[in-house]
Specification:
By secondary structure, this protein is α+β, with helices and mostly antiparallel strands. It contains 7 helices and 4 strands, in the order H-E-E-H-H-E-H-E-H-H-H. The chain has a 4-stranded antiparallel beta sheet. The longest helix is centred in the last third of the chain and has 37 residues, at 103-139.
């Protein structure tokens, strides 16, 4: 039972994406977890549109969808989705439990909320660690060069430099 819950939590964590500065889950991934068709989930959401304001759910733009398609390798437009997917924030996922009334939806929703809370705790721990390292660094100012090197290494681990990836393909001139 415990290993099954861990496997479900791992599967949920894989489905959480960062879009527009928010952690979200896509309609197709939620439908898979709830064991319903995506169109059934979207139909239920549209019937209850007042429950899903813009900060609970949004539809991906064309560029976001293209970027997502390149990242996860979904099918082409022919035979694929006809509409851009909906992305649900944590609050939107919680609101889905009021729209979908199956026992599975309730159980899955509870697990999704647990994963979101776990991620939030993990991020707060990371921020707390960065703050403590900064305080320690201030206290150790003027100390040995080796200690400065240690703090510099820790800072680079906490705040890695993200290099812009080079685009693959031909460029129009």
């Amino acid at each position: 039972m415990i290993t099954k819950a861990i496997a479900i939590n791992d599967k949920i964590e894989e489905k959480i994406l960062l879009m527009r500065g928010q952690r979200v889950m896509l309609d197709a991934d939620l439908a898979e977890l709830y064991n319903v068709e995506t169109k059934v989930l979207n139909r239920a959401v549209k019937r209850n549109a007042a429950r899903f304001p813009g900060d609970f759910m949004f539809q991906l733009s064309e560029s976001e969808f293209q970027n997502l398609r390149c990242q996860i390798g979904t099918s082409s437009l022919y035979g694929g989705r006809r509409y851009y997917p909906f992305a649900f924030t944590e609050q939107g996922v919680a609101m889905l439990s009021t729209v979908l009334h199956s026992d599975r939806a309730i159980k899955v929703n509870i697990e999704i909320m647990r994963v979101f809370v776990k991620l939030r705790k993990l991020l707060s721990t990371h921020e707390e660690l960065a703050r403590k390292v900064g305080e320690l660094e201030k206290k150790m100012k003027g100390q040995d060069g080796e200690i400065k090197l240690i703090f510099a290494t820790i800072n680079t681990m906490l705040h890695p430099v993200v290099k812009k990836k080079r685009q693959i393909g031909f460029v129009k001139e």
